[in-house]
Amino acid sequence: MASSLENLETQLELFIENVRQIRIIVSDFQPQGQSVLNQKIQSLVHGLQEVDKLKDQVKDVHVPLEVFDYIDSGRNPQLYTKDCIEKALTKNEQVRGKIDAYRKFKAHLLVELNNSFPNELNKYRAIRGDERPLA
Fold this sequence. Notes:
Component of the Mediator complex. Helix 1 packs antiparallel against helix 2 (34-54) and helix 4 (80-116) packs across helix 5 (118-128). The chain is built from 5 helices and no strands. The protein is 76% helix and 0% strand. By secondary structure, it is mainly α. It has 2 domains: 1-61; 63-134. The radius of gyration is 32 Å and the shape is rod-shaped.
């Protein structure tokens, strides 16, 4: 699979370079450059045929749609994974904070319930099988 992706990458790089060269030729077109332009166009067609041949080798590669959003907005698609990891870490910290807050709330609630309703809380803890002392 890695070899197929490398072949595709090479073909795409060649294609991009041909398009760049065609742009240069066309932007300053001279009639004597027609044969060179024809060669570049033929090379472009050949490059597209090569990319088409490689499509079956990489058909199982799935690209998240967000990567295309990165490309459309002018950002480097290689940074997509880094941004995903950073977002996951941020979300993880938020969730961890919520879990800690709920644990503290539970502990405080049990202390207050024990102060107000010690008999009922002991019955509740016996039913649950929770024999740990309150913090």
